[in-house]
Design goal:
By secondary structure, the protein is mainly beta. Helices cover 10% and strands 27% of the residues. The protein contains two helices and eight strands; from the N terminus they run ββββββαβαβ. A hairpin with a 2-residue loop joins strand 4 and strand 5. The chain starts with a strand and ends in a 9-residue tail after the last strand.
């Protein structure tokens, strides 16, 4: 199994569809495959009653690439493009087909230029981290009853989440009651 790692260096808006078509978008050859784990990701809850945290990805690059991936690089392809919140995609290639492994955004870039380290790492998060940073308010006059899936779509619409990045069961689940509700006792 091999992995393809792509970064949309030309992205200007996190909500736009990423374009991984430039030759310099493919950083697969720069991922460390030696002594350090080049790719690692986590997703899901650590315990049943816990929160569902954002999926994270760490990409460790080969030694000697500090200059290329520095925000101050003069590399013609990447000049002015090294910054956080760029889309990143990892796909596994197995059995003649690509399998989506991770889609998210570069949250932080760590560069250690010291001669004994020479390391570059990308720390990434998926879209649920960006979703958690949004503030959504409800119109208290809207008493419309909707299904769970419809309510989730309304929330994602409110924060600008693309339709093509959703896979929501719209028919399942109970209807949500109009909120806020008031009762007299």
């Amino acid at each position: 199994m091999t992995f393809e790692v792509m970064v949309d260096w030309d992205a200007t808006n996190w909500a736009d569809d990423p374009d991984f078509s430039q030759s310099y978008d493919d950083i697969s050859g720069d991922v460390d495959t030696g002594g350090v784990v080049g790719l690692s990701w986590e997703r899901g809850k650590q315990r049943e009653e816990g929160n569902a945290p954002a999926a994270t990805l760490t990409v460790n690059l080969r030694k000697g690439l500090c200059q290329r991936y520095s925000p101050f690089t003069t590399d013609a392809d990447l000049t002015g493009k090294i910054r956080p919140w760029l889309p990143i995609r990892v796909r596994a290639y197995h059995g003649g087909a690509y399998i989506a492994a991770y889609f998210g955004f570069i949250e932080r870039i760590s560069i250690n230029p010291s001669l004994d380290a020479q390391s570059v790492s990308f720390y990434c998060t998926d879209g649920t981290d960006l979703l958690a940073r949004q503030l959504i308010t409800q119109d208290p006059t809207d008493k419309e009853i909707c299904s769970d899936g419809e309510a989730i779509h309304k929330i994602l619409d409110a924060v600008g989440w693309n339709d093509d990045r959703r896979d929501i069961d719209e028919d399942g689940g109970n209807d949500l009651f109009a909120y806020p509700e008031s009762y007299e006792y």
